[in-house]
Amino acid sequence: MFHNNNIVQRWVYLLLLLLFLIRIINIEADIPQTYLVDYSSTDEGIYGNLALNLQNWGSLMHPLKISGITLEQNFQTILDIIGNLVIYAFMFIFGDNYYGFRLGIVFIAFLTLIFIVLSIKKLKENYGINHCYFEILTLLFLDINFIFYSASRVVEPTIFRLFFSSIIMYIYVSIKKNSVRSFLIGLFTIISIFLVYINNTFLILGIAIYILILFFMKQKKEAIQNIIYGLAGVITGILLSEIYYLAVWDTEAFKNLFEVIKSFNSNANYTIVVDSTKVSYHFYLLISIKRVIRFFSSNLFFYSLPIFSLIIASLYNIKKFFKEEKKDYFFSLSMIVALFIQTLVSEDFINRKSIVLLPFIIYI
Predict the structure, then answer these.
(1) Could you read off the pLDDT of 199-230 as tens digits, one per residue?
(2) Which of 85, 200, 285, 362 has the smallest set of CB atoms within 10 Å of its CB?
(3) Whether 203 contacts 250, CB under 8 Å
(4) CB atoms < 10 A from the CB of 126, how many?
């Protein structure tokens, strides 16, 4: 009987894998309309610029010369070196076409699924659950989820941000030694900011909220360990980032970070901008309300209403979870709260980018 169950499970996993791979069909086709998923095909060339440079010029920083004018790389483009190296690897294998350009995104989405499923398996071990229903239902949900489907076939940093969220969640649930866990979470958090995308800073805020909750739980020793070893991971991540920026672009990680923020604030079309000429409290109140609505009506929640409902329902037991010291629940909740707070300050196309919360939401 046990042997038969294993065979059935393998067939189910195989069918779910085939369902996932359907997104490769017509991958060269135009992406859905902007109002559906908030992705733009124009952005693909921008976010994949480094990979295209490597493919066409053999260099990350090869300047394009038009009419004697040298066009240098902009500060935002050079952030996602990890994503661009993945894109380039698949272009090198499959050619300079849409298949080569986008298949790396599908690959990262597949790895994201693996880390999410591994996190669920560790969760089951912690609670003594033996069946595989959670993994199967999660895979089925993600395979047919429209927002994940869209993110997993478009060249854009969001899928790489989601990938790092899944890695951090997996590290948290799988590594028991607090010092190692804190170090790795700090390391991958910083890498995801400086070498993927600036707005992954919500992860740092989430970790800070979680540590604060540990102090309220009277877990002072664990909280202090998180701070010490987490900072060691952060410093290591900064050093690795500095090596990249200095060696390739002859600049510094923090300098580039501040230049990106500056460029955002000078771009009237970018949603993190607030008109500095309007400074009344009424204006900022309306902006905040607007951003709250955008957060909770974003694609992640809109296309996943059952999961959103479960998150809201879980808040009913938050006191009970606090008394029972369910730290994994509060770690995930801290990340959701952190992105919400960040959205109030800088509404960076949250409609599509809220998907970075997916591993934490599934875990809750």
Answers:
(1) 899 999 999 999 999 999 888 899 999 999 99
(2) 285
(3) no
(4) 12
